[in-house]
Write a structure and sequence with these properties.
This protein is mainly alpha-helical and about 160 residues long. The protein has a single domain (about 25-155), classed as Fumarate reductase/succinate dehydrogenase, transmembrane subunit (3 helical TM bundles of succinate and fumarate reductases), CATH 1.20.1300. It contains 5 helices and 2 strands; from the N terminus they run αααββαα. The protein has a two-stranded antiparallel ribbon with strand order 1-2. Strand 1 (about 75) and strand 2 (about 80) form a beta hairpin. Helix 2 crosses helix 4 (about 80-105) and helix 4 runs antiparallel to helix 5 (about 125-155). The radius of gyration is 24 Å and the shape is extended.
């Protein structure tokens, strides 16, 4: 039995990699989804690099001092790895706040009581958006507060040029 005359439907991926970050008709929730993935991957990358760098301590004092000297490197007066630590902190603050939002949504908070689907439909997203904005504002406040200490320690001489 041959199926040569059956045509397979092919759905082209017109967006390619751009489709990973282009939310199209979606709203802020899609961008939060993308940022949640990126921040999670960044935290995972930091964990792997942290374990790798900490392993140099076993190789002796000289290897450890060499790694620490490299990590104190600056480019144009900006300590690159200190900036990376702040970006890690900001990613962690966002990831934690968005994770709290996702857990609360998954547990059914702010969904409201079930109703008959009568037109005009009410979306549960209107209730959840309040939580989304509240937790994003909390993340921004934490990032700014953490950034204050970072910027106080940072030599900003490159900005004065």
């Amino acid at each position: 039995m041959k199926f040569s005359n059956i045509e397979r439907k092919v759905y082209p991926n017109d967006l390619g990699i751009k489709g990973w970050v282009y939310a199209g008709k979606y709203r802020l929730e899609r961008y939060l989804y993308i940022l949640h993935r990126i921040s999670g991957l960044g935290i995972l990358l930091y964990l792997v690099l942290h374990i790798y760098v900490t392993g140099f301590k076993i190789k002796g004092e000289e290897a450890w001092e060499g790694v620490m000297t490299f990590l104190d490197m600056t480019v144009l007066g900006v300590p690159i790895f200190k900036l990376g630590e702040y970006m890690l902190f900001a990613g962690f603050a966002f990831h934690a706040a968005n994770g709290i939002r996702l857990v609360l949504t998954e547990l059914g908070f702010l969904l409201g009581k079930p109703k008959r689907p009568v037109y005009p439909f009410t979306l549960a997203m209107t209730h959840q958006r309040i939580l989304m904005y509240l937790l994003l504002a909390l993340a921004v406040v934490v990032i700014i507060y953490g950034g204050y200490d970072f910027l106080a320690d940072l030599n900003l001489s490159f900005l004065k040029r």
